[in-house]
Write a structure and sequence with these properties.
By secondary structure, this protein is mainly alpha-helical. The chain is 48% helix and 2% strand.
Amino acid sequence: MTRGAARGIVTCVAVGLLAALGAAGASATTFAPATPEPARAGAEIAGGSSLPTGSAAVLGKTMGWVYPPLLLKGLAFLVVPPDQMAAFTAIISRESSWNVFAVNPSSGAYGLAQALPAEKMSAEGVDWFFNPLTQLRWAYKYMNKRYGSPNAAWDFWQQHHWY
C-alpha cells in the first residue's frame, strides 16, 4: 500500500468517526476564544472576498457540526509526533479553541490553525473547509515550514501571541 493510499484510508476512517460521533449526539464545549469567532454568512476573508452563505463554515455552524476537541486532539496524533504534540496543542487551543469552523472577523483567518488566507489549506485537500484532518495536516506542515517545528512555532507564539 502506498503512503498516499494509507493517508486516504486514515482520512476516511477519521471523517467516518467524526460523522458517527456527530450522529450519536456528541458535542463539544462552546467555542469562545478571545479573538476568533465562528463563521457567519458574509464574513470577510483575506483579499476582500467573503465566505459565501452556503460555505461549509456556515453550513457546519447551521447544522450544528461541532467536532469534540478531545477527538480532534486524538486525530492530531495521526499527524504530529509525540514530542511536538504539547506545542501543537497549545497553538491550536489559543488560535481556534479547536473549532474547525473558526473565523477571525477582523483578519478572515480560518480553521483550527487560523490560516490566512484560508484558501492556503487547499494544498492539503479540497475538503479543507470542513475536514479537521486536512486542517491538522496543513497546520503541522505550516509550522514545520515556517518555524522548523511546532515547538519552535510555540516559542514564537509565546513571545508574540501570534504565529
